[in-house]
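Anyone opening a protein record will find just a pair of labelled lines. With that in mind, the following record should read easily:
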Amino acid sequence: NIRDTDGYTGYTKSVVEENEILKSFITIYDVSNLTEEQLATITRHEFGHALGLGHSTAPEDLMAPTIDMTTPYISECNVAGIVDLYNGGEGSSTICEK
């Protein structure tokens, strides 16, 4: 139930070796003041980071820096990003367009 002084809801720290994520630690702040839906959405966002996804530039995307709680699920673009990451596309990036 710790709170972040900068107002963040959580963060993910990954241990990486030679571009491979060995393990990730997810911290979610102030859990007792979150609804089940908020906790689930923040967990999905942080798990995306644990898988290797960065922040999205689309504000409505689950992986946006500020999570829009009205769209709590991973987008097709994020799925494509995970496929690119784990399909041997070293150094690749996924570009999504609406």
Observations:
- The chain has a mean pLDDT of 86.
- The beta strands are 10-17, 20-28.
- Helices lie at 36-51, 76-86.
- The longest strand covers residues 20-28.
